[in-house]
Amino acid sequence: MRDFPQELVDQVVEFLHDDVDSLRHCRLVCHAWDNSSSTHLFRSLNLLVSASSSLQNNCEVTSPMDRKLAKLKTLLALLKTSTTIQHYVRKVTFGRTSLLAVEDPVLYEQAEYARTLTSVFAHLHRLSDLFFREIDWSTLVGVLRTCILNICQTPTVQNIDIWNCQFPSIPTLLNFLYSCKGVQTLRLTHIRILNLSLNTDREMDEVNATDFGHQDRDTLRSLTIDSVPIPPKLYALLGMKGVIDFTRLSKLCLNNVTDAATIRECLERSGKSLEHLELRTSPFYRKPHDPSTPGPDLSHCPNLRHLRISGLQWTPTLCPAESLSATFANINASAYPLESLHLFVTVIKPRTFIFTQPSSASLSASDSTQTSDSIIEPSAPVSKDLNYGAWSILDSTLVQPQFTCLKSMHIRITPLRAGDVDLSRLSEAFRTIHKSGVDVQCT
Length: 443
Hints:
By secondary structure, this protein is α/β, with parallel strands linked by helices. The protein has 14 helices and 16 strands. This is F-box domain-containing protein.
């Protein structure tokens, strides 16, 4: 349809020349389709820096930086000439800045790239989602760093997702997070910090000397931290310096955070308003329960309604039920508002082979020259059974009076092999809580 001749279009609708009502309906339908398709076509904008070849189609040797800059300027010209596209863009992905060379001959081009990028974002009046990918903060020139910080402060931006980025130090990360002033959802995934130490006086002085201001920071509602090596001391700095207001969070996701002290510190600072908590691959449930080692203190989350714990492992010798029970046993509130509990469990049931020596009668005549000790046959694989009764301790804990608000509990089992788990036996371990009216599902 892109090359459909206009003359043929005119002939198709020529019979409607005098039918004003039909022409009006056709125009309205085409206009509606155009608006709807444009809304979806320009909703997401990919500004990832792409790797360019050294030759163009006309075989003229040009700088890869020049071509990246030319593409960005073409986009800017389009935004300037079409005011409607400016309002269609909602999501922008930017990153791969390592492809922007930082050698002296192209520093000017990188600065020009930053200025053009700033102009592009200035024309996106309804931008709501920012996705940063593969940004190495230490390799950016100052003007490009300032550009990114200004982008994060766009008034309409509500959600920021930062993935696979690298920062030279904690003060640099603090400064970047502080620029995300008005966001409601912040996701940090696979963030690398080259210098994690906060023990030296110089680094502490650098943090304390940074003026982060006193703007209102109570907009953040959802925070996700996934595979980020953040020490507990950093959470104290985030709250103390006003970089992130943990006290207003309603949803917190801690994925692949293996430091128990970090999880406890984060829950202590953000628990009062939390309604949704997700813990994945938590260190509290990957080893036998140790009463001397405190787990996550859910008493810091008096308004928690939904809890999801994933990355649990269940083996013939290890069941996470006791550690989970200890987590809920620490709650001393008379009425806890928890409504739903989701547990994601991986079953690891190793199999072993027992090698047996056959009887002498089974040896054939052709094997008579071999001794019976030299022939060993493997039997069928043998595996230890799972301890289904161990889950009853969690059943007896959740049936306590403080958990009367609990309405549903879903245990999703992922076995390594089919037939390793008997779901009916697992459901039977929660018969007490099921009789109390809780919807228990084991799938």
